[in-house]
Structure formats: C-alpha cells, structure tokens
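Quick one:
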Amino acid sequence: MSVRRVQQHPNPKYHDPGAYPMLIRAPIACARVGVCVPRASYATAIKGRGEIPTLKQFILRGRVLGLYRDVLRTLRNISTSNPSLHTELKTYARGEFERNKFVREESHVRYLLSLGEKELEQMRRYIIRG
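Output:
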C-alpha cells in the first residue's frame, strides 16, 4: 500500500500545499508493521536493484533513450512509403532494446550504443537511397 506524505515548508506562511508550488509529494512504502520507508522512483533508481545510478550510468541511460528516439524518428519517414517495412524495423529495434535492457556494465552499454548508432546510420542511408 502506498501513502503520499506532503513535505511541510519551514516557513509557516507556506503551510498550504497549494500556496507553495515547489512542494514535492514523495511516495512512501509502508510495511504492515507500520514503518514507513521512502521508495525510490524509477527515474532515480536502477530498476530491480533500488540503487541510485552513478553520473556515468545516468548519462549513458540518456544516450540510450536518445538513440531509441532517433530510431523512432527515422522510422517515421518510412511509414508513408512502406508500412510493412516500418512495422518490421520498429519490431526489430524494440526487440534489440528489450533484449539488452538489463545490461549494466558500462563498457558493454557503450559498445551497444556505438553498434546501435552504426545501424541507425545504415538504416538512414537505406531510407534515403530507397
């Protein structure tokens, strides 16, 4: 069961949550024994392990998400000319990202990023020539 607790601003002038827009509602996980423990959100914790990512991991995650967005943007150009090719390439790209989503070693993630960028460039050349 999740309970939301509103942080109180130290200045009593801002005791109303609606009056101070910067108040953050933090998710709290409560066990049956009544002990409330702050729960890390997906954006701040590595999924499944509950650890806060390092700066390098955070930057790599952003690069991976950026590559995925670039792939989807490139695939948008195909949708009008050949819908079946668009579906096939989108399924392939999603499958590759899903297959490697639990890779945590930074060097391997960098390798996969470079491989994905090369494949994206090849796909762009194919689209432009095709």
